[in-house]
């Protein structure tokens, strides 16, 4: 058997239990968000659910990196005590074995696992490709970071100590050195991936830990300094064309995976009548230009009555659940100023919304 | 042909010199013991030879290849067992052997079975459930089944209780008979090593003190006891080969490192004209202790001279 495949098989046996748990986490989140896409109830608190799923997303990323760390720790490339150091395993073979295993377990298998979910959610081929590329880029970076940590650290505590310190340094670099406009997130991620990859190759092939660490920290500081797009102005104040387009064109569905659904109407804390709507779409934060607005942006409301003036609605995001390249957001849309009467508002909303939703699900106003 | 050669091999950790200008020439065949107290530089030497650390200066060659260039081709011919080696403890013994097998084209399944029987290893037990002795046996098995030309053992007896140690030594003696391998064993357990080594290299503070066959070493070392019948006249000019000279009443004791029967007796008569001389053979352990003490005394004297 090919020795690289032999190493991959051994690592699979080593980490299969945590990997199954990790796959279950991914599948669970995908199922959760897919179910939400089908739902149009008032009861689900998307704010809370979104926070919970966000936490699980973080756990998933960290757990993925830890699994890769475990794979790397199995056969440390430079250690004087590692079993592989005195066995007939070349450094290149070891690196290929570790990288292939990590890529297969944490990038390829999850993409295959998620592909049916994406297809069921109505992803087009383009969406599917973008989602897979996005997953590969994000998870690839975590895989590379895990390999990097496993290649340079002796023990787990060193990783736990180094991550906040290096993270803090990089954050400082990002704050003090960043330029406007920042490059796209995918470009920064790709550059970071290249820098980390160089560091990993340095550790496995050259076995110069200090020089390798220097290269990595300097490179990452450069990438961070070039600009973390999350800090750019354009990220915080995006346009929001989808909802407006749906309202203007009176669509309830653009594509299967790009939905804009009217759930109903409610009253908010100020006694205003508000529209509750839900949007769902493929989510690939690294590649997609569409971003969820974090500040209220205006949406033009088009009445069904001829001659009525266009009105402006203020969208307020109630919550977003984002997982497995799917995103479901629930909105509250209200007029900037309360109009004279509740009934009048209701009329305006219903006139506007009636074309935007499945009329059968609407209660009688 | 020498299977291991070093020239001026030196390794420094910061200001501390773990191995100093070591020149070694270990011929193929037989068992060579690398002896020394803790911190003498044995394990560092082994790590330098196995390309686990890079020498500060000097060079080493193993199987005719520069140690810094040891790669898969050479490691297929080398077996390495160390007390500190990290084995994949989550594997069972059987899985561990399955894992090792593909790395070695010359893996001998028949020898593997023989060794399994001799070492009495349970195939279905996980390595982390094995005792330390059994674990070392598993490591030994995984390093012997491909019939390596060179077997390197780094402190294999460390942490083993006497019974397990005895079993392990017995195993090594038994498996030694199964193949033609050169064994390099680094240990401070002299009594264990004495039983099967042909050649001894003694390290002290990173420097080579002795490098010769066990027979020659034991032949030239004697613990000499001199019973004085009368006080020697004048100052004593002791030969350099006398170590650990001590006197208790009329009894003088020292270790002769260049024992020569009549020659040694004649040297004693020169210093102590009226005395009876008895020379006792020494075990390797006694020789090692005598040399270690002599080494320390030399270092102390050298430091005193430097300070003065």
Give the strand tally of chain B.
Answer: 14
Radius of gyration of chain A: 24 Å
Strand content of chain B: 25-35%
Instruction: Determine the number of helices of chain A (DSSP H or I, runs of at least 4 residues).
Output: 10
Helix tally of chain B? 10
- The helix content of chain A, as a percent range, equals 55-70%
Give the SSE order of chain B as H and E letters: EEEHEEHEHHHEHEHEEHEEEHEH
User: What is the distance, rounded to the nearest whole angstrom, between the alpha carbons of the first and last residues of chain A?
Assistant: 71 Å
Poorly predicted runs of chain B: none
Q: How much helix, percentage-wise, in residues of chain B?
A: 25-40%
Instruction: Give the rounded overall mean pLDDT of chain A.
Output: 75
What layout of secondary structure does this protein have?
The complex is a heterodimer of chains A (365) and B (308).
Chain A: H1 3-38, H2 46-74, H3 91-120, H4 125-152, H5 156-177, H6 185-206, H7 209-226, H8 233-236, H9 241-249, E1 259-267, E2 273-282, E3 299-301, E4 311-323, E5 326-334, H10 342-353
Antiparallel strand pairs in A: 1-2, 2-5, 3-4, 4-5
Helix pairs in contact in A: 1-2, 1-3, 2-3, 2-4, 3-4, 3-6, 4-6, 5-7, 6-7
Chain B: E1 2-13, E2 16-27, E3 31-35, H1 42-49, E4 57-62, E5 65-66, H2 72-75, E6 78-82, H3 93-100, H4 109-119, H5 132-144, E7 150-154, H6 162-176, E8 182-187, H7 190-194, E9 199-204, E10 207-213, H8 214-220, E11 222-228, E12 242-248, E13 251-256, H9 262-271, E14 275-281, H10 284-307
Parallel strand pairs in B: 3-8, 3-9, 6-7, 7-8
Antiparallel strand pairs in B: 1-2, 1-4, 4-5, 9-10, 11-13, 11-14, 12-13
Helix pairs in contact in B: 4-5, 5-6
